[in-house]
Design a protein that fits this description.
343 residues; alpha/beta; 434 Repressor (Amino-terminal Domain); Rossmann fold; 3 domains; 3-stranded parallel sheet; 13 helices; 11 strands; 46% helix; elongated
Length: 343
């Protein structure tokens, strides 16, 4: 009984490559070649190895294989924050494309964490390449990663050094959105967001200003706000309490716009009769708001997917010349701006 118990325990424990080699009567090098389809292995020998693998339920150690091949089979993505539908959609796109290539994904959120630069450099040592999203770390860290020859993609961040980059078009769509409101006849259009806190919002702010200058109007200053619904509600409460409150608002994202809708209801303002509201991203909730939200649709999943594809290409081809891609955005007209929705 004791011997039987011992054999059962061995079966429950993960088998090693040494046990497979003994079982098949070959060397561990032969087992490795057969598993990797590398080198010449006689059909009869390969059959014995396959049989031993099956009988022992052998699972090759992923870390060991990675070290032997000189890479990790994992990529990293560094985000400013993991909450909210925008970030989760981009991560989903990145993970989907990475999984299709057999890559694991390590995610690092830097929001509220000290020493983010050191964390990113440590992550680079444990992955085959990195995606840096937005202003998660300074350009000095990008330059250090460049110096270390780490394959790198910048996502929704200005180009820098030899890194690849992918982003969504912002300025032209913000200009078109603001023109749309001006054509409605709105006299005073506010902007809620933080142009200095995000490269994307900075570009949207520039497009908003472009539209005002094109019609000879002075550009009002932005009302600085974070990205969350509560941030938008606080900013809008202050803005709407002013005597010269705007009759339309361009919000830097849909969550801010949702906060503006809450503040407007609390102030007993009708949307869009008293206040037109627009957002950005076209998150799933945008079309279900009351009224449905006019916004700019971002290719959120595609941003993540394309970042993963660019990074995988950089890793596999050892390409040095950087590639920069800008994905299109789309103005989506619904009722919150005063229109009968076209989409």
């Amino acid at each position: 009984m004791k011997a039987l118990t011992s054999r059962s325990a061995r079966r429950r424990r993960d088998a090693t490559i040494y046990e497979v080699a003994r079982h098949a009567g070959v060397s561990i090098a032969t087992v490795s070649r057969a598993q990797r389809n590398a080198g010449v292995v006689a059909p009869a020998t390969r059959a014995r190895v396959d049989q031993a693998v099956a009988e022992l339920n052998y699972r090759p150690n992923r870390l060991g294989r990675s070290l032997a091949r000189g890479h990790h089979d994992a990529t990293g993505i560094v985000f400013p924050d993991l909450s909210g539908p925008y970030y989760s959609s981009v991560i989903l796109g990145f993970e989907d494309a990475s999984a299709a290539e057999g890559q694991s994904v390590l995610i690092l959120a830097t929001h509220g964490r000290r020493g983010s630069g050191d964390l990113v450099l440590d992550l680079a040592d444990r992955t085959d390449g990195l995606v840096l999203f937005g202003q998660t770390v300074g350009d000095d860290i990008v330059e250090e990663l460049d110096r270390r020859r780490v394959p790198l993609v910048l996502l929704a961040r200005p180009t820098h050094g030899e890194a690849d980059s992918v982003g969504a078009e912002n300025r032209a769509s913000a200009r078109a959105l603001t023109f749309h409101l001006l054509e409605h006849g709105y006299r005073q259009i506010g902007f809620i967001g933080d142009p200095d806190g995000s490269p994307d919002v900075g570009e949207r702010w520039l497009g908003y200003g472009d539209a005002h200058r094109a019609v000879g109007r002075e550009t009002p200053g932005p009302v600085v706000s974070g990205f969350r619904t509560a941030d938008g509600a606080r900013a809008a409460t202050a803005l709407l309490s002013q005597a010269d409150r705007p009759d339309a608002v361009v919000c830097a994202n849909d969550e801010i716009a949702m906060g503006v809708l809450e503040a407007a209801r609390a102030a007993r303002l009708s949307i869009p009769d008293d206040l037109a509201v627009t957002g950005w991203d076209d998150i799933p909730a945008a079309r279900h708001l009351a009224p449905p939200l006019t916004t700019v649709r971002q290719p959120m999943l595609d941003l993540g997917r394309r970042a993963a594809e660019l990074l995988r290409d950089r890793i596999s081809t050892h390409r040095i010349e950087p590639r920069h891609e800008l994905l299109p955005t789309e103005l989506v007209i619904r009722s919150s701006c005063g229109c009968t929705p076209s989409t």
